[in-house]
Amino acid sequence: MMAHSAFNPFEMAQRQFDSIADKLDLDQATRDLLRNPMREYHFNIPVRMDDGSMKVFRGFRVQHNDARGPCKGGIRFHPQETVDTVRALATWMTWKCSVVDIPLGGGKGGVICDPHNLSLREQERLCRGWVRQVAKNVGPLTDVPAPDVMTNGQHMLWMLDELEAIRGEKLPGFITGKPVGMGGSLGRTEATGYGLVYTLREALKELNVRPHDTTAAVQGFGNVAQYAIELYQQLGGKVICVSSWYQPEQCAYTFRKKDGINLKELMGIIDRYNGIDKNKAKELGYEVLPGDAWIEQEVDILIPAALDNSINTDNVSKINKKVRIMAEGANGPTTPEADKVLVERKIFLIPDFLANAGGVTCSYFEQVQCNMNYFWTKDEVLGKLDQKMTSAFIATSELARKQKLYMRDAAYVISVSRVAQACRDRGWV
Amino acid sequence: MGDVDEESSGAMMKGIDKRPTMNSVVSSLRERAKELQCLYSVEELLLDATKPLSESLRGIAEAIPPALQYSDLGQARILLGEDIYETEGFAMKPWDYRCPIIEQDQIVGLVCISYTEQLPLSDTGPFLRDEIKLVQTIAARIGHFLLYRKLRGMFESSTEPGRQEDGPSAEWIVAVDLLRKTDPNLLDRIARKMINLLVVTGCEEARELLVTYGSEVRLDRASGEINEPIQKTSRVALSHLVDETFKLAARTLSDAEILLRIQKWIHQDKSVYLVKPLIDSFASLGEISDAMRRYRHYRPEGAELSPASSNSLMASLLRRFFTEQLEFINVAKRYVDPEDIYEILDRLIYPAGSHGKLGGKSAGLFLGARILQKQRENVPDIGEVYTPNTWWLASDGLQEFVNFNNLEEVYEQKYKNVNEVRQEYPHIIQLFKSSYFPQEIVKGLSMALDDFGDKPLVVRSSSLLEDRLGSAFSGKYKSLFVANQGTKPERLAALVDAIAEVYASTFGPDPIEYRAERGLLDFNEQMGVMIQEVIGKRVGKYFLPAFAGVAFSNNEFRWSVRIRREDGLVRLVPGLGTRAVDRLTDDYPVLVAPGQPTLRVNVSPDEVERYSPKFADVINLEANRFETLDVTALIQQAGTSYPGVRDVVSLMRDGLLQRPMGLATDYAEETPVVTFEGLVSRTPFIKQIAAIQKTLAGALGTPVDIEFASDGEKLYLLQCRPQSSASEDAAAIIPPRVPAADVLFSANKFVSNGHVPDITHVVYVDPDRYNELRSYEELVAVGNAVSRLNQMLPKRQFILVGPGRWGSRGDIKLGVRVTYSDINNTAMLVEVARKKGSYVPDLSFGTHFFQDLVEARIRYLPLYPDEPGIQFNEQFLLASPNILAQLLPEFEHLEYVVHVLDIRQLSSGRILRVLMNAEEDKALAFLSVAGAHGDAAAVNEPRGVYHNTASSNIEEHWRWRLRMAERIGELMDADRLGVRALYVFGSTKNAMAGPGSDIDLLVHFQGTASERLALEAWLDGWSLSLAEMNYLKTGVRTEGLLDAHIITDDDIRRRTSYAVKIDAVTDAARPLRLGQGLRR
User: Fold this and answer.
1) Which of A166, A167, B635, B770 places its Cα 20 to 30 Å from the Cα of A291?
2) Fold identical between A40-174 and A185-429?
3) A96, A108, A257, A388: which one is catalytic?
4) B824: contact with A, CB 8 A cutoff
5) pLDDT of B11
């Protein structure tokens, strides 16, 4: 077996786009416009190190498309960052914002560095240096960064502070992912999990099934899973099992209670990484099954909310006949091969970038609130989130129904067509 | 000579200044003050030599009772010849104490103290130990005073005018005369010194004289050795020589100089007399102690001892109190004063006639503390470093205890078979605990408890074998915490109990085995005990330090290229340091490199939280025991009553870690994470630790390993010893000439210490091929394959070699995507940085699970194959048969990326060995003979410490297991149990079994359900019995020793589960003979 050209994430993103573009029958100009980023900034960031020496880091900002609004996307610190990775991620951000119909474009940025080799002071100087290099090209109405791989709220605050110093004004909407009280939005913790269930609720409506009559199996017990379970149970659904990582044995287990798990009870026996204590769960009457067992349960709904590639050729065949809906809480939980099986089995899919778009929607809300300098209550945030997710789902599923598309393709089609339309309306193509 | 008194009273004054710093307990301080007051009065009275003797002695008698514990009932009497000087109304009582007054070896009188009433018994009758010493001191002082008076009288009468023609300038002649009459031996010694002085000043006649003295004999014979005894010079001749010497001196030197010299030599000689018992190796600790006190009281200021005798005194004291080890003495001489030793005396408990020592741990700590104290002026960053209040029990306390209870048979313990030792050990602990301690030791402990009050204590062993260079006994003997709460008898009982248990640990199986391995068995074990206050503060019902930890001056676990080895490493934990000393499986200490404190292992807040300490060891004062608590809950509950909490924790708020600020922090409402951020960034702590390490390493001439603790205010040094890491972390000696064909790879950058022996499998992910993988799925699949291999390959006997950054969470192309659980069985993680053009990629240094690697002792090594001078046998890795597809058929398509090599198959039974040496910054992986020890070592084989011990054990473990497996086969009634065949596989078959390994059996079963039940029961019985036998052999407890997998024809047909092992291509199960022809 011989390898051909090496795996390149940007090429993969382009191929993905090409196939959608074919479906949409886009003209060449639109393809050329959307296949590549609108703008890219590559720059040097000189940083004075703690020992007095200077070190020059390489920084990027890629703005893939801003036809629908300011670019939105994270900043990554990674020692072997490549511009192709950043390009691919910026492209995906464009589609993600578009699928939930928020007025933002796609962007991504990064710095080639290993924070493990940098002191906090050096990291601060690096963050401020990054902003100084692109201060003219970013901002609340232009391009809005957020934390990403190896960056966090602290880095964002340094960057925000630097831009505000340069511009001489307060611009909290420049960056999202800030702590509450420093311009962050309430409801962010719940957003992804709740958002997933909003779309699930709509899917059930469409299939004419009452949530009361459904059962679900959940993979993972992290933030997304916990809030998803909470809301789904409020709707009347019954979660019969969750899987979670068990630290002492370095493996995952599935915890099952056929008459429904008790979220509160399980929350009481987790460690701080949301791992459920196997022994205590046993005492509480849960069956402890192998980590993979969640997938073979006789349920209506599967919610993979843990790892990527967890549904693959090895286990896709184990999915129970009863399963009707798969709501992807994690990013890329299904491999392309397994995806084909889902299509054959006619399992209704709520694809990841729709199902877990609650997060990015909440970031959008953060930005909106910052720009008007008025902050909503949590209920307001979640109410607006419900609206956004619901209409995004309806738009996607309608398209899927009308065009007889697989939900994943429908989501892509709708998002690409919205962006293409905006470009056309602006007279760019 | 007349100034002796002034000098000694000067020493007295100094003593007064010094003493209060030593004691903390008010009552004993009061006793001490009274005693000092008395000594001071005595000195006052004796200062004026012109005062009538009777007046002085009466005054002394009056001064004694106020110094006694029950001063109002005390009385004293001094007898001198016929004369009696006593306190008013002195009456003889049966409970008195008498001490003779000795003048020039003659008893000339007596000092006697007693009480008017019978009082409770104390150290000696009703008297305290210190009171007895006081009387002895006074008696000695009087004796010297008498001699001085006599000499002074003679001196005055002989300096009357007209006796010498030289007039007043010839005072020295009088002195010589006096000496001739009173102390001719001293005169001899002085004359000898004089003649040496004259020779040095170049006087020819003096040289001739020296020849006649006899000591110059060798000079003339330098050209040839003559084997006949040198003739002895007679006494009369000597006397003549003295005269000659001084005649010569008179001609050469001025009178004033001669007098000065004589005076100085008399002083020196007198000091020598005082310290004589100190140098005497037969003197007991009691005698030394007395001599030390005398020396202190009489030591003249200024020129006290000649440098030579001072050195020899120090050396012999160090030898007596600490260790015979020359390295130690050589360093310690420079930093320790006799005064320092004096401070130990007050807190040293020893049996009568003891010749014991304090032991290694005490020695290290004592010396460490002295070095820091002395170097503070030069290195201000050291700052204030304290040592906890400590009492010592001399090392022969153990022997005394054994003799006292007639337990001598325990000495034979060490020659017994180790399973006997293990079996009997619990019994010995109980035996020791129910035995009694000699009275003087109990008394000493009781005094110690009065001194400590109800502070929690730690009883630490300080064996003479412990902490010697090269044999780090750390953790082999017990250290026990005692909460020390309750009534005095209860506390005393608990303390005695703890000491008995520490004593018993000498006869435990682990230290005995360890000693046997190191050839230290015949060394008569003596164990000193340190009783130390636990540093800390009370927090609710708990007692704990704000933080504690260990610091190494060499950093063997560098997590960034910017960290140098000499930047050191600190492992910090909240609460007691026990959690920092041991590698933990369920928790992590905070790691800081003092030389680079801003470069932390964990960067993002979630990483920091993930790898923060979650538990703290504390002492529960109410339950009187040692406990491990959830530290988050503790801090939430305790809030600001946790000592120095603001420097210990950060608060996790909305994804950010913030240092607590202001007064309003309600810890109960927060999520505190132990980060020590405040401690590191806003206190001088790290600077201080760096300075301490550097200073100690510099002074001791070796990297050091220290333990410390802080109560939130003061930093305490708890232990200090050479950084002689556990054997497997020691620098491996890399053999100079390994044939190039046997070398797999070498490294010369960022190498840590250690060796990984007996590697049977190598998993090599080819960087080039990995880089060329086209799909994301394939890249992920490589990680999955590694994860599966991690479960299949023998634990800690395979290494993972792969591109770039193992466990990278960013771009999957930069390294195989794995989590810690996917690699946790590997012995070593190797990252390969291949040059791409002129660019060498960064490696991760294992940062993604760095702390997991550290705690699990998984080695990390970065390889730079394209650097000059590096060997990298790519051909071997790529072209050797790859067994991936045999092991994991489903991953066959990755065969060209993931190479799995069975080293033994490839190299006719040899294994791969990786030796790493940080000192040379070199590592070498090469093919070698398995378990090189015994006969096999004849092959040019590097023999690390590890091989001498562990692999010989492995040898034993697998052989025994294999024998047992064969035995099971022989005894199995195969027909009755429905067994068709029996196989052994896994570590037993592969000769890799360790003390805790299972015996993996594969049972091919063809019987009925009831036969199956019988088979399971039969195997269960074996399993339990073997587990017990194994426990007795090794001390490792397992629930059962057999891991029997029962498979059916169906399994074999479908090749499911373990059935694949039968006739497998690699690592096939080995059939066992079923015995007694039962199988037809």
Assistant:
1) B770
2) yes
3) A108
4) yes
5) 35
- Residue partners of B1021: CB distance under 8 A and separation at least 6: none
- The CATH number given to B374-534 is 3.30.1490.20
Contacts A–B by Cβ distance under 8 A = 119
Q: Provide the token pair at B1036.
A: 């490792």
Report the CATH architecture of B4-156: 2-Layer Sandwich (3.30)
Q: Give me the residue from B560, B599, B655 closest to A179, CB to CB.
A: B655
- Residues forming beta bridges with residue B392, ordered by sequence position: B348, B530
Q: How many Cα atoms are found within 13 Å in the side-chain-facing hemisphere of A422?
A: 21
Q: Is A136 a catalytic residue?
A: no
Element (H or E) spanning B320, and its range? helix B307-321
Distance from CA of B742 to the nearest CA of A (A): 30
Task: Tell me the pLDDT tens digit for each residue of B850-874.
Answer: 777 777 778 888 888 888 888 899 8
Q: Which residue of B has its CA nearest to A311?
A: B777
Mapped onto helix, strand or coil, the DSSP state of residue B543 is strand
Q: Where are the domains of chain B?
A: 4-156, 374-534, 546-722, 727-937, 952-1072
- Strand, coil or helix: what is B459? strand
Q: What are phi and psi of A5, to 5 degrees?
A: -70, 150
Tell which A residues from 312 to 341 touch B, by Cβ distance under 8 Å. Answer: 314, 335-337
For testing contact with chain A, the best of B558, B615, B654 (most A CBs within 10 A)? B654
Task: Tell me the CATH architecture of domain B546-722.
Answer: 2-Layer Sandwich (3.30)
**pLDDT tens digits along B929-945:** 875 533 333 333 333 33
Q: Give the pTM.
A: 0.68
Q: What is the pLDDT of residues B959-1001, one digit of tens each?
A: 788 888 888 888 888 888 888 888 888 777 766 677 778 888 8
Contact B174, B158 (CB under 8 A): yes
CATH number of B952-1072: 3.30.460
Distance CA B704, CA B709 (A): 17
Residues B979 and B1004: beta-carbon distance below 8 Å: yes
Number of Cα atoms under 13 Å in the Cβ half of residue B59: 18
Domain regions of chain A by residue span: 40-174, 185-429
Inter-chain residue contact B774 with A5, CB threshold 8 Å: yes
Domain A40-174: CATH superfamily, name plus number: Leucine Dehydrogenase, chain A, domain 1 (3.40.50.10860)
**SS3 for A312-331, per residue?**
CCCCHHHCCCCCCEEECCCC
- Which residue has tokens 């590890």? B946
What ipTM goes with this model?
A: 0.76
CATH architecture of A185-429: 3-Layer(aba) Sandwich (3.40)
**Surface of A (338-397) touching B: CB under 8 A:** none
Residues of B in contact with A120 (CB under 8 A): 598
